[in-house]
Amino acid sequence: MENYTDEHLGNFTTKQRIINSIIQKNMPHALLISGPKNTGKYNFLHTLATKILNNKNPISPYLVTVDELYKEGVNSLEEISAQNNSSFNQFERKKQKKKSDKIGVEDIEAATKYLYETIDGDAKIVIIRDIERMTIPASNKFLKLLEEPPQKTFFFLTTSTPLKILATIISRCRTENFSLLSQKEMEETLNDSEKNTEFYSENEKKMLMLLSAGKSELFEKMQNNEEFFTEKKEKYKEVLELEKMTNLEKMQKAETFAKINITEILDFLELLLLVKRENLQNVKNRENSKTLEILEKTDEAIILLQQNANKRLVLENLFLSL
After folding, report:
1. H-type helices in the chain, by residue range?
2. Which domains does the chain have, with CATH numbers?
3. Which of 54, 79, 140, 265 has the smallest C-beta neighbourhood within 10 Å, fewest atoms?
4. Residue 86 has what pLDDT?
5. CA 154 to CA 157: how far, in whole Å?
6. What global pTM score does this model have?
């Protein structure tokens, strides 16, 4: 741990403060990292946990993640593990095999049982990604686990929406905040010859910074994966073309989109928000009200879709308002 420095972009001061507290043997019982999605919260905690436990095995009984099948189209937690490069044990719910975006009480009970049955003198770290996904019963169950944890058990937690978390849970955690990359950080990275970014023209650099929206995970992935960057640019063009469609074409688009998985739909709507926020900076004041209205409706659509509303109806209403 003494020589460990996180290799990913962003939030260096916060990361180093956490690392230093661990080196000084002042590791918090429960650490919560809050911040926008795709800012590297989970990846940082993942790597940090393996360093703390000096994990040399692909699977360690002392590293556990609590989750459900929240990625649509994924049939097993082993697949999630492979997609995330995760080396953690994960608990699969026995009662529900289909996709879910919630962490249920069964998950917390399974983790609790495992922690108490693994009786030895070694420390254990439990990681929970996006704890706002917990149901109320799961939150209450987890609160009891936080209040009376097994010996030498530590909790690493992340959230993108802390207002959705029980205040009593937050009060029992040390909270650190991750922020978006600054324009300066992104420009310096793209201008660094060691990053092999000579391929990008000035326009492409601007597009990369725009599409990442300061989210370090997206920025690094687009920077290092040309295919992913191209895919994002195509989606961006698709958003721009949406407003030029006739109402019939928009309804057909909504019908087509309703058939794809929710993650892709939400990614598309995030791009729509990005486009509209960019417009808001460039349009004249008389046009601002329309742009603000679309931003508000897009936010509402995202919330409705996350609540499992009818995808086609939500998308039709949104697209027709453009």
Report:
1. 12-23, 41-52, 77-83, 105-117, 136-147, 167-171, 183-190, 202-212, 216-224, 226-242, 247-257, 262-282, 288-306, 311-320
2. 12-177 (3.40.50.300), 183-320 (no CATH)
3. 54
4. 41
5. 10
6. 0.80
